[in-house]
Amino acid sequence: MDNSFVQIVLLMLIAVVSVAVFKRIHLPPILAYLFAGIIAGPSGISLFAHPEDMHLLAEIGIVFLLFSLGLEFSLPKLLAMRSLVFGAGLMQMLTTTVLGCVVVLLVTEVSVSAAIVMGGMLALSSTAIVIKQVTEMGILNNVRTQLAVSILLFQDMAVVPFLIVIPLLSGGDSSSLAWALSLALIKGVVVVAVLMSVGKWLLPWVFREVARTRTDELFVLTTILVALLAGGLTYAFGLSMALGAFLAGMMLGESQYKYQLEADIRPFRDILMGLFFATVGMQLEMSVLFEYWYWMVLGVALLMVTKVVLVRISASLFAISNVDAWSAGIKLCQVGEFSFVIAALANTHGVITPTQSSVIVCIGVISMALTPFLIEKSLGIAQWLAPDRRALEGQEQAIFEAEDVSQHVVICGFGRVGQSVARMLDMEDVDYVVVDVDPIRVHESRSAGEPVIFGDATQKDILLNASVVNAKLVLITFSDAEKAKLVIDAARQCREDIDVMVRTHRDAELDALYKAGASQVVPELQEGSLMLISQVMHYAGIPMSRILKRVREERKGRYDHLHGFYPGETTEISYGTMDKLEFIHAVVLGADAFAIGRTISELEKLTDKVKIKSLRRGAVDYEPEQWSQVFDPGDVIVIAGKPRRVERAERYLLEGD
Description:
This protein is of the alpha/beta class.
């Protein structure tokens, strides 16, 4: 058997066991992949003789991650964040690089050029870890995370000059250095213009034609190809692959296919990101760690504290609250994955020594290992550093906490049916907790203040998190009968006497769902017919008591009189029309959004396009008629309307056009 095949299988085995063990002790998967890399790397069993050979494959994981991030950041949203990206991001990068350079010169005997490179490596933060963690926690759309993402975007752009300068530092030719930087700037402008043009005019047409084929495989392949081509284009111009993928995703983020694109890319992204973190772990040299452990512990502590303080100072110039600034700094206090790329390049060209490179890599791996814990606790630490009553209203938690809820309804699935049920329950002051597996929907609904847990409702632990043992009812709103049976079984394991109601499209699965343990099965088609029949009978003069009795009998008899129809030439294939479709969307106002400093009455164009459902500041929801103040950064406006009108309304709130 080929040796490389055995190596890959062994790496997968180590990763699977590590993730399973770490999840059992409630540690994030990122740490499991780092641990698997250490075991498989030179400091462990030396599974791969040259771990750097896997770097390109692992970097594709970052490409997919940045492509997904670009789907979240449409061009209007990015423009609304421009002051944070080029203001706070630039200031953080400069101050951290300069301070790191000074410290390196004071404690080591290196050249100025080496100190600058090392300072730049320490200034970078991990886009991969931060974005993955905040996405899983569902906190991507709050102000503190937006600040962190803005700084990360600038850092990714700042990597490019380092990659250009390092090969020239050994030569010492200043004219060559200036020419290379000027050429890189020109290339950057050209490639960004090309990608934005292609993304705006060509890619929507491509995906429209692919979607018409109704072939899932073709759509997935096209998505992967677009992400890789965009990354390859920027790489060919000497820029970061991740930057090209981000731009391509950002252009497609305004298309109607953004949710499907994100869903298609997610499995590949998560697998390759796991490989990336494993390669990071492989770069940790235990011999260097043991030899310089005291310097590394001190270096990690000083680095993380310093980066937190510098982000706090950088954010203070842009009207960011103290709590949000501290929280963003805690998220960004680690060393980034691109620091490893710079370290390898600088070592190759003799700018820094192998020992110096290994020390920085070790510091980076240790800081990365601490990051998931720090991100989860970032808000609590920030509130301790700068108590702020307004900020105490928001919490960054991995899941919605439902321990204090009782006598509520657990809604499994938050599509149109689940949301309609939730609105009616809310009108009657009935508590509910939602479980949904769609991350985009969870982010949107959480931003609007809905009690939503991200997770698979077929898993017992997820239902326990929804406090199913104290619930009145479990409602299954999705029409997948096989998955519904798994949810019924999981709910019965949590509490044997819980009532479980299942919604299904037709009554073909009626008996199977009752046998699986459902208390009530509601087939949409038959129930819609019953509602129509009851209205007809009412207008025909039949007393309401007889109508209700007839409806109860039909339900008890499993809709017996609603079966057996005369076939015709035509078949009714739908009972709804797409032109009645209405979207609900939560718009989070950034620091540079057009709506900041204005009242609802000053945004008169908004109500011409959509309906304002509610407004949210912190954890408090307001009805539109209750809102009289001006909008501040971080406020959430929940709007409803047809998809294109919702898109135009968001653009108006962010840009003003």
